[in-house]
């Protein structure tokens, strides 16, 4: 499965503990990443400063569902069950 352009759920729902440009302490769950633009595209995609956890994310139906809204719900649910 390919990521849906403009979804952004994986840049909003999960917490990220590694530094991100503009967010030196990472980001809490439910907070938009500072590197997510207005079109929900990563401004540092493919760049070396992109956190490894982001680069290693693989879209799949179990995590992303079939809509952007479903992806946000699924990833939020996964995040809350792993805290």
What's a quick, concise take on this entry?
This is Zinc/iron-chelating domain-containing protein. Helix content is 27%, strand content 0%. It is mostly helical and 83 residues long.
Write up what this structure looks like:
This is Zinc/iron-chelating domain-containing protein. It comes from Shewanella saliphila. Pfam families: CxxCxxCC (PF03692). By secondary structure, the chain is mainly α. It has one domain (1-83). The protein has helices at residues 52-55, 61-64, 68-81. The longest helix has 14 residues, at 68-81. The N and C termini lie far apart (27 Å). The model has no long low-confidence stretch (mean pLDDT 95).
What sort of overall outline do the alpha carbons produce when their principal axes are compared?
globular
SSE topology string: HHH
Q: Mean pLDDT, nearest integer? A: 95
Q: Give the total of domains.
A: 1
What is the first-to-last residue Cα distance? 27 Å
Uncertain spans: none
Q: Sheet with the most strands? A: none
**Into which percentage range does the β-strand content fall?**
under 5%
**Oligomeric nature of the chains:** single chain
Estimated radius of gyration: 12 Å
Q: Helical stretch count?
A: 3
Kindly state the number of beta strands.
0
Indicate the percent of residues in helices: 25-40%
């Amino acid at each position: 499965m390919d990521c849906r352009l403009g979804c952004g759920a994986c840049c909003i729902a999960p917490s990220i503990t590694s530094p991100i440009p503009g967010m030196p302490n990472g980001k809490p769950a439910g907070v938009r990443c500072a590197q997510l633009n207005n079109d929900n595209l990563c401004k540092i995609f493919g760049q070396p400063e992109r956190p490894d956890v982001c680069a290693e994310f693989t879209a799949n139906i179990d995590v992303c569902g079939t809509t952007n809204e479903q992806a946000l719900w699924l990833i939020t649910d996964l995040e809350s069950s792993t805290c």
